[in-house]
Amino acid sequence: MNVIETRQRGEASDGSGVGGRHSRIDGRLKITGGATYALEHRLENLTYAVLVPSTIAAGRMTAIDTKAAEAAPGVLLVLTPDDDLGLATASDWFGNRAEGSYRPLIPEITFNGQAVAVVIAETLEQATAAASLVKVTSEETQAIAGLDDPRAGEGNLVDNLTVSWGEAEAALAAVPVKVEGEYRTPREYHVTIEPHGLTATWEGDRLTIFEPSQWTHGMARSYAEWFGLPYENVTLISPFIGGGFGSKATASFYGALAAASAKKLGRPVKLAITRPQTFTAYGGRAATRQKIALGASEDGMLQALIHRGANETSMVGTWVENTGAATPLLYAVPNFSSENRLVPVNTVTPGALRAPGKNPSAFGIESAMDELAHALGIDPVELRLKNHAERDPQSGKPWSTRQLREALTAGAEAFGWSRRSPEPRSMRDGHTLIGWGVAIGTFPVIRAYGEALIAIRKDGKVEVISGAIDMGQGTYTILAQTAAEALGVPVDQVEVRLGDSSLPGAAVAGGSMLAGVMTGAVHKAASAAREELIALALNDPNSPFRESGANTLAIANGQIATPRGDGPAISIAELMARIGRDRIEVKRDTLPEALANDVGRMKAWTTMSLMRAPTDGDYSMHSWCAHFVEVKVDEDFGTVRVSRVVSAFDCGRLYNPKLVESQWKGGIIMGIGQALLEEGLIDPRRARVVNNNLGDYLVATNADIPDIEVISVGVPDPHASVLGGKGVGEVGIVGVAPAIANAVFHATGKRVRDLPITLEKLI
Amino acid sequence: MRDFSYHRAGSADEARRAATLPAAMLLAGGTTLLDLAKCGVTEPEQVIDISHLKGLDDIRVDAEGAYIGALARMSHVADDAGIRGQFPAVSEALWQAASQQIRNMATIGGNLMQRTRCAYFRDPATFPACNKRAPGSGCSAIGGVNRNHAILGTSGACIATYPGDLAVALTALDAMVHLGERSVAIDDFFLLPGGTPEKEHAIEPGEMITAITIPASPAARRSTYLKVRDRQSYEFAAASAAVGIELETDGRTIRDLRVALGGVATKPWRARAVEDALKGKALEPEAVRRASLLAVEGAANHGGNHYKIELAPRIVARAILNAGGAA
Ligand SMILES: Cc1cc2nc3c(=O)[nH]c(=O)nc-3n(C[C@H](O)[C@H](O)[C@H](O)COP(=O)(O)OP(=O)(O)OC[C@H]3O[C@@H](n4cnc5c(N)ncnc54)[C@H](O)[C@@H]3O)c2cc1C
Ligand code: SF4
């Protein structure tokens, strides 16, 4: 990557409080190797677990022979579906809990790579060698390899995703201009650099889990329920996470196996998912397809939109990758119809990957809008501005804030869009065809609750303590900034402790909501701590302010003084010494009164049942963006290089523009990989993803990434969060792939409707 | 990965003797060997470490040509001033191979010996059928995912691509592979799969690569390596071409031409038909493009790799025109 230019709008503060461009406070630890990740804990007496994957994709295991594995050097334990581990079913994400026992290993095989056994040995090498000796006999049945398998069929309608208003079919039939296309996205994977896995260790009936986690409390609950333990008996520790992207928010079967083995053996067990297993131990993004028909009047006003989407799911689980997630929100259209289907195939159950639903959804609608612009002969930016939705077309509610017009205008201006020559193949440089494309994106504001503890120490330092997590997005830093601002201390006087389920509660780090949730909680707790400190300063017999006559005090830069500065002024440390206090602790949560009890807290911290939809309340709340992309396509080779990106975002107020920009750019970079490179290649006969390693599953390298310019056009959104921010983590990827596909069309005249846009699709 | 014994060789001769033991394997940079051992593809009983041996990592370039010791690192060779000046295609092929980290570890001998990236070859647990790994077991790539597989030099037994870049440049430039007592022309060093895809090189037990030599020539001096792939770095070639060209003093008639293809064949693929069609002719874009189609004469498509038949000649043409200065 070359120089990254950044424009700032609407964020004046460069100070150390909220809105300041503070560098990541955990950055140094990570760069110097000082941050200990979950799988790096070297516990005494540690043993190693290795999973044995199924090599068939469908059928039933009839026998499993573990004798050779058990006899192999160093082997301590082999678990198979025959072993009842005595586990109980845990609750789902929403807190619903079915009766019955939980078996992490089962003989019914529904996907290639499904674990059928686990081997625990003294060393990783011994466990690996022994795992290859486990002999499985199965009755194989014919697998459905993926969405494209002719036997997969049309799938089953998901009733609650059917959305319609007006008369879409009739309106489409009546319009003068229409376009129709089918858009497809393949299986995509998180490929986090830190692999999944955990170390589990027991002390009596207390279980400690070191595991990378986007949700310490929710995952701790699963472990507690599996083992029939009180919630407090499980501690899940996850201070650093080497990439999550949605894949580390659930306790998984391998966690249950490791913890159960540790219990049986009376020794800690470490289970690390291997790189190939990261394609099967949990699900990536489901493959999708969607048919979209758009109809417009000749002046470019949308009249009808029909959307028929489908995504693959597994044979045993339901994953909805809603390709209709963005479709109804983007444009004002009087006649609309969207339906979505689920197609069960023999895969691991897919999961959440950065902007689930919204991302493939935007690929469909934003490609189709480009096709419509071309059919109408209208500039694609102009078409989008023309059809701007003044309120949420689906819920009918007003937007809380929507600076999408501003994003389109500011992005176009910075990109130089007005110099675009509209005809495809009209811009070139030697063998290189040049294309410019645009697409918009959106991501909902999801609200939830959080809790934080603020401690003021006698040395004047402030601690922020929460079980929330930081997977690189900057939680440590923005919470320090929030506490610093609310308390009136410099950021470097704030220490933040995160990533431990025994600490105060937090919602899942998912849905781009954690920053909004936790800045709210920390702001509240820190403001209360400030009040408490001031009350002590005014009332404590040993305080110098006792006789000052002031009825409040000011705290700034760690100094307490009378508001007009005419009385004493001392540091927080000095005040603590004078009043003889070691530590002041204040814990606050953001729960409404009705939920401020034990049951409510448990629900809020360990389930997703209290998450609030973007339209819950009087407004419809979303982040918005517009991406402008230049591509260079070699006309002989079909290779696409993204040479320029300018993206403008409305994410409300930015708590730390520097970190926000890196979230946006990260999303854009991932979007470039999605557009051009990423695809799980499925062997049609064995239903196995064969490029299950980092050499063959291609993600973008530095060389693939050009200058990226990001622009903020947001205004504080008081409805979205306490401090006025909207989500920033996921919106950045939404719309990147269609912007690139649209640019490729502009460059070459070829419309690629299935990702990724590899060279053979263009030669 | 199963247990193996590790032996640090005292000399090249000792290493060669030790390598005659059953299931013994030489270890140089280890970037292929360890990878394949982890996949369960190679299961050496003895690993004979040669990486530290002295005197095998020389790089010398003089008027006669280049001498590159088998243990020279990819990054060193790529960066060598003599190689860059006299054999630019070799340097360019190396720079575009793998990643900087791998190039810093990997050796020239090991690089020639790298194995195919055929996904089925690398996954023995799920795909037992692979003639290269288990002779006679069948070929899982036929009828499977074969976007990266070969269109040239294939047989009913195996369609795996030779993935390396360096060997393609060496093949165009008529390099020799030195195996201690004897030397083999590089084009003879790599074998076609035929009915024995497990046998990839003309190297016998008791032999190891000690060095590579490349004869100097005007065509070598005016050579280039063009690699095409979806990702801009750290990816094997979808197709590539190494080209060396010498023009007559008129500056447009082709006196000498060398063309080899990578990423499309079961071995580094010399395209003599293209060379013959253009030698003595004017370097003219249309003629070059037409002649380049001969590069894929007899190509076979297996479904996923169909595009290579169209792509490879375009790369050959561009590389010839680039090298000749007519692009
Ligand atoms: C992710 C990835 C991407 C890659 N991308 C590319 C690419 O784009 N282009 C490319 O060309 N290559 C690529 N490579 C391959 C890389 O160049 C080779 O792995 C490397 O050159 C091997 O050299 P080494 O010294 O590490 O060999 P080793 O792993 O030590 O040995 C490889 C084999 O050669 C044998 N051997 C080693 N030395 C000798 C000798 N002197 N005589 C006889 N036999 C010997 C060994 O026994 C072993 O079988 C890539 C590799 C990886 C892992
Ligand atoms: S192409 Fe060759 S290496 Fe690949 S599966 Fe077939 S026989 Fe094995």
Q: In percent, how much strand structure appears in the residues of chain B?
A: 15-25%
CATH architectural label of the largest domain in chain A: 2-Layer Sandwich
Give the SSE string of chain B.
EHEHEEEHHHHHHEEHEHEEEEHHH
Q: Major β-sheet of chain B, in short?
A: 5 strands, antiparallel
User: How does the overall form of chain A come out from the CA principal axes?
Assistant: globular
Q: What is the highest CATH level, the class of the largest domain in chain B? A: Alpha Beta
- Determine the number of helices of chain A (DSSP H or I, runs of at least 4 residues): 15
Structure, explained:
The complex is a heterodimer of chains A (763) and B (327). Chain A has 763 residues and is of the alpha+beta class. Chain A is built from 15 helices and 32 strands. The N terminus of chain A is likely disordered. Helices cover 28% and strands 17% of the residues of chain B. Chain B contains 13 helices and twelve strands. In chain B, the strands form three sheets. In chain B, strands 4-5-8-6-7 form a five-stranded antiparallel beta sheet. In chain B, strands 9-10-11-12 form a four-stranded antiparallel beta sheet, with helices on both faces. Bound molecules: flavin-adenine dinucleotide and iron/sulfur cluster. The site of flavin-adenine dinucleotide (FAD) has 29 residues of chain B, from strand 2, helix 2, helix 6 and helix 7. Chain B: GO terms for molecular function: FAD binding; oxidoreductase activity. Chain B: It comes from Paramesorhizobium deserti.
